[in-house]
Amino acid sequence: MRLDEMSQEQLAEFEKETRKEYEKFKAEGLKLDMSRGKPAAEQLDIAMGILDAVKSGDDLSDESGADCRNYGGLDGIPEAKRLFSVMLGVKLSQVIVAGNSSLNMMYDMIAKNYIFGTGDGAKPWGKLEKVKWLCPCPGYDRHFAICEAFGIEMINVPMGKTGPDMDMVEKLVSEDESIKGIWCVPMYSNPTGITYSDETVRRFASLKPKAADFRIFWDNAYCIHHLTDQPDSLLNIMEECEKVGSEDMVYIFGSTSKVTFAGAGLAFMGASEKNISYYKGLLGIQTIGYDKINMLRHVRFLKDEEGLKAHMKKLADLIRPKFDTVLRILDEQLTPLGIGEWHRPAGGYFISFDAPEGCAKRIAQLCREAGVTLTGAGATFPYGKDPKDSNLRIAPTYPPVSELEEAAKLFAISAKLAAAEVLRK
Amino acid sequence: MRLDEMSQEQLAEFEKETRKEYEKFKAEGLKLDMSRGKPAAEQLDIAMGILDAVKSGDDLSDESGADCRNYGGLDGIPEAKRLFSVMLGVKLSQVIVAGNSSLNMMYDMIAKNYIFGTGDGAKPWGKLEKVKWLCPCPGYDRHFAICEAFGIEMINVPMGKTGPDMDMVEKLVSEDESIKGIWCVPMYSNPTGITYSDETVRRFASLKPKAADFRIFWDNAYCIHHLTDQPDSLLNIMEECEKVGSEDMVYIFGSTSKVTFAGAGLAFMGASEKNISYYKGLLGIQTIGYDKINMLRHVRFLKDEEGLKAHMKKLADLIRPKFDTVLRILDEQLTPLGIGEWHRPAGGYFISFDAPEGCAKRIAQLCREAGVTLTGAGATFPYGKDPKDSNLRIAPTYPPVSELEEAAKLFAISAKLAAAEVLRK
């Protein structure tokens, strides 16, 4: 029987039984951190070969003949630019391969535009009275934290099954010149796991923002992180922009943080030649260049697009059972009761759980008190404020399957208990 | 005979002879880039062992047990923090080990203070009408380029044999609240090669700036780059600051760019606990962390302070003959003629040459036209404007000794020719 069809008596009995189950879990003394999308040790083990890809006896020249041990090459070595331009879906002339963190690159692009402007004559964002930003949500908390740090006012845009509410996006950007950007995780979205539809991508490319310096921050973090043999497909935003002449409107980001080593990978950005040229001008003041040996290491280990795909398949084989475990338990425990909604993602790092309204914080609290830390309730919304107190992000990659099973059961029990508490009121 | 003692006839004859020598060099078709302080291939060869310091079979935990392959650890792994805090002369609680570029860290500190302020309640620099900066010169062109990019007005401060003109520094910072910082390369200064005297360091620590958010950018890039067995010594600025309670006034920077690999090394910053805490708060928005595997690689290769010293000694043995070659040729060719002044540095990367007034651009042009590129004349001054058109920076490390000998001879001949041309007018 669905929870919302139960009488108050039935609910009271259900809550009592569930609380017993919960207390049993609590007594087990679990201790598990599922708060961040961290790779598991077995995933990292698969990348260990990268440490031997560049050894002391090797020639450390890139394919242009430049010595990767020395200064030079602001935008990356040619072979790394080639491999990762393909990954981002941009031309070789449209890519910069940089440091170890795409988050840092996104932050830097906002900082550059804040201090110096976007390079097309518009005022630097830091000189404006007010800068606003569109935040499809639920979304990525670290994106929102950047906006908050810069004092950028965030506007919630609801995420649907095909991407952000594009009617709202089109309307807002065409009317309000102070809206300067939007965060997008277009494939296996963090956290909802959906991939933007072709129509959504085309509507993004065709946006007619009132602000000439409006920018789409296209964080394509999970573009190769497929979990199944039927992966989603995402239309190439750069190609769509080029068709309509809007290629200066989009910055595309990616990294190997969850491909090789988290924190010791590479980050890269795709953008129009005009944007790349402007950004390189600014970047040349900031640094002489990035770690070219790590670029060499990556290309020699991953080799090419096929090598990258084969590596990602190995990772998927490790991650898929974890997603399956969580989804199975949610299906078994919550579907019959009609508690919550979630999506079965074909890739990415997260399962997004929409609890009954007013339950998310309580579920996180119940889990925490029984030893399982989730990403804080509210974190998937700007300013940490989920208006419905409903969304929770589950990050299944890090724990071993056995622990994950326990954690997912605890999660389900907590969801039941929270839902019953709300309905009993 | 000194050039300035020659009659016009003698000068004409001298110029004619020198021009002949110059034309001979030009005909040789040299092609040499001495514009930047780049390590030579033999120096990089000495660091090749670092590539084997972390292999696929190794345990990649840092000494706290954290897996360096995964996310975490914003301020660096403990063993790297320990090694490089010693190098910077600060406590373990006063260091952040970060990415691959100390230039980038300095840029970031200015950007942070520009956007968010220094954290003590003062307005962000970007919100002020005017921000000024003291620039001891000759100095490092990339420092000046950062100020120029941020629209910070640079004020020239003459460099002497014991450091910047401290009377001028003290007077200016105590009077003008819009002066927010000063660039210092306190040891083996870029380019003059001098090391700040103890008195200079103490006077820096005791500065009483009008601006509470005034900061000393102490770029200690060459603190371990000794060339001889009689190295200079530099007083510890952090200790001096702590004695007088001014420890929040200084940021100290260093890197291994010229220790291991240029661009694939580590950068680090020393600062008071208060500054570190504030900066880490901002940094946590920008990135999840830096490349901990490269930190592990560095510590396992360099081991400890003794290991670092032994490594630097090997580098010094390669670099010293190059400095000696240039200095010998300058001594032989120019001293008898009384042309120019230069310092014999006990470390660092540069020889600074003060040509007779009005000669620097002409010398650089003559060298360039005969195939040797120097750092552009004027580059060692803010806005590229050397008021006396006198200073040139010679970077002897990159070319092999044989080529360097030719280049130094060409340099001396060009200096003679330029000096004669000026005196003949």
Question: What features would you describe in this structure?
Answer:
- Two copies of one chain form a homodimer.
- The first copy, chain A, is of the alpha/beta class and 425 residues long.
- Chain A has two domains: 3-44 and 309-424, Aspartate Aminotransferase, domain 1 (Alpha-Beta Complex), CATH 3.90.1150; 61-302, Aspartate Aminotransferase, domain 2, CATH 3.40.640.10.
- Chain A is built from 13 helices and 13 strands.
- Chain A has helices at residues 8-28, 41-46, 78-88, 102-116, 141-149, 166-175, 198-205, 237-244, 273-286, 292-302, 305-334, 360-369, 401-424, and strands at 32-34, 95-97, 132-137, 153-160, 163-164, 179-184, 215-219, 250-255, 267-270, 341-342, 351-354, 372-374, 391-394.
- An eight-stranded mixed beta sheet of chain A has the order 2-9-8-7-6-3-4-5, with helices on both faces. In chain A, strands 10-11-13 form a three-stranded antiparallel beta sheet, with no helix packed on it.
- In chain A, helix 1 (8-28) packs antiparallel against helix 13 (401-424).
- Chains A and B meet through helix 4, helix 5, helix 9 and helix 10 of A and helix 4, helix 5, helix 9 and helix 10 of B.
